[in-house]
């Protein structure tokens, strides 16, 4: 299910999710914190988890269903990256931190029901390669 690169780098985590996703109840934690020096790999792992959760097919890492394509292109309506510069309400002028308005926006979006698994990825650093 997960790309071999993720399986090598995050063996415990990918095994945990593969087991949870195979389970009919899809029982796993509702929130997770990834911490460490390699923020880029952690970000892509979070995106991959979001893709696995929302995949309309079998979850293969090369799946081409609409949800997988949306997530790979950062266009999925239920998968948002929240940074000090991304996904800010129009009236939010802050530029140095993730703002309270952003967290309120996320909170308010959870009121509405969704056919998708919602994934919010909060990043406190710049994603650069």
Throw out a few tags for this protein.
single chain, 129 residues, mainly alpha, two-stranded parallel ribbon, 2 strands, 6% strand
Beta-strand portion reads 5-15%
- Note the gap between the termini: 25 Å
Report the total helices: 5
Number of strands: 2
Describe the structure.
- The protein is mainly alpha-helical and 129 residues long.
- The protein contains five helices and two strands; from the N terminus they run ααααβαβ.
- Strands 1-2 form a two-stranded parallel sheet.
- Helix 5 links the parallel strand 1 and strand 2.
- Helix 3 runs antiparallel to helix 4.
- The chain is globular and about 40 Å long.
- The two termini are 25 Å apart.
Architecture blueprint of SSEs:
Blueprint: H1 4-9, H2 11-22, H3 39-54, H4 66-72, E1 79-82, H5 100-109, E2 119-122
Parallel strand pairs: 1-2
Helix pairs in contact: 3-4
């Amino acid at each position: 299910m997960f790309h071999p690169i993720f399986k090598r780098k995050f063996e415990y985590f990918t095994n945990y999710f593969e087991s949870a996703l195979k389970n009919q109840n899809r029982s796993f934690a509702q929130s997770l914190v990834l911490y460490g020096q390699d923020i880029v790999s952690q970000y892509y792992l979070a995106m991959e988890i979001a893709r696995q959760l929302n995949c309309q097919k079998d979850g293969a890492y090369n799946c081409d269903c609409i949800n997988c394509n949306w997530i790979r292109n950062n266009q999925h309506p239920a998968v948002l990256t929240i940074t000090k510069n991304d996904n800010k309400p129009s009236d939010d002028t802050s530029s140095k931190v993730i703002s309270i308005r952003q967290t309120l926006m996320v909170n308010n979006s959870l009121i509405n029901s969704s056919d998708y698994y919602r994934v919010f990825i909060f990043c406190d650093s710049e994603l650069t390669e």
